[in-house]
Design goal:
Layout lengths: L1 H10 L2 E4 L7 E4 L1 H5 L1 H19 L5 E5 L3 H12 L2 E7 L7 E8 L2 E8 L8 E9 L3 H12 L3 E11 L4 H4 L5 E7 L1
Parallel strand pairs: 3-4, 3-7, 7-8, 8-9
Antiparallel strand pairs: 1-2, 4-6, 5-6
Helix pairs in contact: 1-3, 3-4
């Protein structure tokens, strides 16, 4: 069953050469979201992985701005958990903590509300895609500032040639689909 679910998800990933700039092969998850069966399969596969890896030890799913918000709440719902948001700077009300990270073309910042978690709570970070790892690494730093324990980071797609997994250091990482 899991192989057929994974094939269903894989068939919905589209590739667009030279987008957003020449030389980049863009992996588009939009068809996964459009098709309820493949979206449901992606959530089921991620949830099953997390259940096997962590049992009932997860307290929250953290969704990354912005496409992690598409998977985070559904994954949290499937696991019977709450979902917290890690947003681009300036998008959250109230006191926040911030972490910066480097992009190919500059810097960016993420933030989380200071009261989103209690020290020691266990979190899994989710996004749609892992490329260079900068965003996920910054999310792990933010969670560390709140003294949360990051159990794992997960994504639908991983671009292995960019070695983003290495940027996460000792934090375990899992992806459903891997592309060069």
């Amino acid at each position: 069953m899991a192989d057929s679910e994974l094939q269903l998800v894989a068939r919905r990933i589209r590739s667009f050469p030279d987008f957003p700039v020449p030389g980049v092969l863009f992996r588009d998850i939009s068809p996964v979201l459009k098709d309820p069966d493949s979206f449901r399969a992606s959530i089921s596969l991620l949830a099953n992985h997390l259940k096997k890896a962590h049992g009932g030890r997860i307290d929250y799913i953290a969704g990354l701005d912005s496409r992690g918000f598409l998977f985070g709440p559904s994954l949290a719902q499937e696991l019977g958990l709450g979902c917290i948001l890690i947003r681009k700077r300036g998008k959250l009300p109230g006191p926040t903590v911030c972490a910066s990270y480097t992009l190919e073309y500059g810097k960016a910042e993420l933030e989380i509300q200071r009261d989103a978690l209690e020290p020691g709570q266990k979190v899994v970070v989710v996004d749609d895609l892992l490329a260079t790892g900068g965003t996920m690494h910054a999310a792990c730093e933010l969670l560390g500032q709140l003294q949360a324990q990051v159990l794992e980071c997960v994504s639908l797609v991983e671009l292995t040639s960019l070695k983003g997994r290495e940027k996460l250091g000792a934090v375990p990482f899992f992806s459903l689909l891997q592309y060069e």
